């Protein structure tokens, strides 16, 4: 299962894009989005999902 970004809560700070080890997060249109085909939930890299860890707004990066 991939993660997703709740667009209405996203501050568009970009922190998640630079922390994503699989390069799954990109800015598209007016929002950051997570490509579910690329999202690995940081398995093999970290015990926690980096997007959720660095996001300044709780529960913005969540399981899809």
Uncertain parts: none
Give the percentage of residues in beta strands: 15-25%
- H/E order of the elements? EHEEHE
Task: Please give the radius of gyration in angstroms.
Answer: 10 Å
Distance separating the two termini = 7 Å
Record the strand order, biggest sheet.
1-4
The pLDDT mean sits at: 96
Please give the domain count: 1
Rough outline: globular
Task: Write structural notes for this entry.
The protein is α+β, with helices and mostly antiparallel strands and about 60 residues long. It has one domain (about 5-64): Alpha-Beta Plaits. Helix content is about 15%, strand content about 20%. The strands form two sheets. Strands 1-4 form a two-stranded antiparallel sheet. It has a two-stranded antiparallel ribbon with strand order 2-3. The longest helix has 5 residues, at about 15-20.
How would you summarize what this structure contains?
Keywords: 4Fe-4S, Electron transport, Iron, Iron-sulfur, Metal-binding, Transport. This protein has helices at 15-19, 50-54, and strands at 3-5, 25-28, 31-34, 61-63. By secondary structure, the protein is an alpha+beta fold.
Layout of helices and strands:
Elements: E1 3-5, H1 15-19, E2 25-28, E3 31-34, H2 50-54, E4 61-63
Core attributes:
single chain; 64 residues; alpha+beta; Alpha-Beta Plaits; two-stranded antiparallel sheet; 4 strands; 4 iron, 4 sulfur cluster binding; electron transport; metal ion binding; 4Fe-4S; iron-sulfur
């Amino acid at each position: 299962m991939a993660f997703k970004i709740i667009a209405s809560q996203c501050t568009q700070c970009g922190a998640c894009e630079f922390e994503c080890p699989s390069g799954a997060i990109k800015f598209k249109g007016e929002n950051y989005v997570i490509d579910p085909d690329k999202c690995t939930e940081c398995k093999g890299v970290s015990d926690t999902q980096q997007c959720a860890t660095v996001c300044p707004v709780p529960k913005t990066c969540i399981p899809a």
